Please model this.
Amino acid sequence: MPTKKDNVDLICSIGELAGLFEKSASLEDFLQTVVSIVAYHMRAAVCSVYIYEEDTQELVLTATQGLSMENAGQVRLKLGEGLTGLALKELRPIREGSGFHNPHFKYIPGIYEEKYQAFLAVPILRGLTRVGVMVLQDPVTDYFDENDTKALQAIAAQLATTIENAKLLMTLHRMRSDLAAELKEAEAEFRETPRFIKGSPGAGGYATGRPTIFSAAGEQFVVDDAPAGAGGTLEDFERALKRTEEQLEDLQVQLEEKLADVASMIFSAHILIVKDPKFSGSMSELIRNGMSARNAIITVVGNYISMFAESKNPRLREKVQDLKDLGHRLIHNLGTNQDDVGDYADHVVIAGELLPSDVLKLHAQNAAGIIMVGGGMTAHVAILARSLDLPMAIVNDRILFDLPPDRMLLVDGDQGNVYIDPDDEVLSQFREMEESRREAESFAASWEGPLVTRDGVAVRILANINMLSELEAARRLKAEGVGLYRSEFPFIVRSNFPSEEEQYRVYRTLVEGMGDRPVTMRTLDVGGDKALSYFPGKQESNPFLGLRAIRFSLRYKDVFIQQLRAMIRAGEGHALRIMFPLISSVDDFLEARGILRQCIEDLGRENVPHHPRPDVGVMIELPAAVEVVDELAAEADFLSIGGNDLVQYTLAVDRTNEHISDMYLTHHPAVLRALKRIAVAAQKHKRSLSFCGEVASNPRLFTYLAGIGVRDFSVDARAIPRIHKALTSLSVKDAEAFSGKLLATATIRDIEKIAIPAPGGSS
Ligand code: PEP
Ligand code: MG
Model:
């Protein structure tokens, strides 16, 4: 009897499948390669993949090694039907020494017959979403064992994302035949364009460029800046197609090199569509029938866009912009051989909605800046833009969507303003500001020794890190450690939960990058406006008050444990601090810390190198936590104020709602008093206290915090020079007097009248 190969080998070769997929012509092709590899390694007579169709709720045999290929596409099983359907229905593997003895066995000639005794099925899942089932069969009774089940589960997990993306395309092909292929006429509303639009800041810095509209499902595909004369023959089209494919693959590789922690498979939908023979085939056919290549691209991409935009499936609707990108890239590649075509270089992107992955795509495609218009923004989109140094302003004026493409825009991300066709004077003002920012940067970078205020009080500046790419700036600007690592970015931007190993590699790079400086890792803060697209969960009508942050971790303990283990392992030999977000009670904290301690114990027992006793802290972000801050300070090793959320929840003002941003007041007396109570508790229990949040550009809040005793400030790397300057010119004595006055004042108006002590001032 042939022996089975090592399962580890098999899992590794499947790990390379994402690459394999890119070389395959279609999903069926790809899965066919997968089943052959698996059948070979497992020495199984049959390996098949069934894909789950959500609308019909049926499993379709899509690829098989060992059964007749004639059956592919023909065999359909209901959810729960036969052992295969049952595995998917109950979301569990099913292994039988001889499957046909099981009462659920369903006889299908050529597929499930008595000659195949041994049976093993594992569901392919993306989060809890059903993607399909992978099935092994063999004539030898009891052929599969527990190790085979585990190996097949690992393979299914690795395949899930790729298949899910490809499934979107399959849905689309079905929709194609139903929908009319007519382009809709979009009429630009005409009104005089203003020269200046006041908005609010999203991500600092300034950018200039021509406007490009991003997304807005339902829009038509407009090609207004394609090179003239790019009509194109079939040969031109085929060259452009190949070039587009290569460019996209290069983009993906480059992005993964630069942003390894977050950027996996960002361009997978583009690549998938461009490789889809039905997509390119429709265009070739139109060209063969006499249409120019340019018009064929416009027609087919336009049709696809209408279909995606009208789809009920939100994941398909999200792909509208990917299609537009692809269409533009194809058209540009028809007319030129330059490499930087089809991207957003020298363009300011105007968007109604953006996903975190969109921001990465825009960054990879060289966008100069972003203007978010109304609603559709999540705090993490702005945070990501900040991390990528992509200036962003948030405005409410929809006229920006109607700007002709030849206008020039200037985005001021620090103030949140937009200038249309700025004159030379405005442009030179911004250049000067940028120059002084650079000077402040090199001053901060050249700083040696401990940081003290003007009156000699020791203070520390730490960095907020969202992505590993920011480490370099944090080090260059002399951050004394990481005060907040937002661990959710690898979770948000990917399309599946990263494994413990993947997380470990990211966290290890982080702690090693900071050398002997302390690194404070915050456990997963998802939920609220940071939903995981691949984790269906419950649609919450009020997500900010829902299953967010530590509540999510305590509900899904396996996700939490994996993350804690990865963090504790990564911290080995380094100054590691771990803190929990959105703690609302001492009970929350004790439960979370209990799990953390259990993880340490487990790692010890397993002899896995790890940090034996990281400092464990609590983020104070809720009024409830402020009420019990004394007891929290008694329990925790350190406290960290999440200023952005503390203001949001104290004042019940959504931090992402543009319409009420004037009510988001960091100097509201309730906020100031809450901050004071936190500082008092930290001092009483001699706990270190840091403030993480956007404080650097707010001198009133910053001075107040120094006045009540906060000494550690954790800010985005870009804000370090500014806060460095503010801290070195601050007198703590003046700040204390200022804070005392603020605390004794009851109204917002009166607080606003109290003068902030001048930097480098009197005392
Ligand atoms: C905060 O709430 O202030 C904070 C630092 O966390 P985040 O902005 O990630 O919610
Ligand atoms: Mg927060």
About this structure: Residues 484, 486, 525, 621, 642-645, 692-693 surround phosphoenolpyruvate (ligand 1) (CB under 6 Å). Confidence is low (pLDDT under 50) at residues 177-191. The first strand starts at residue 46 and ends at 53. The chain has three domains: 4-174, 196-424, 449-755.
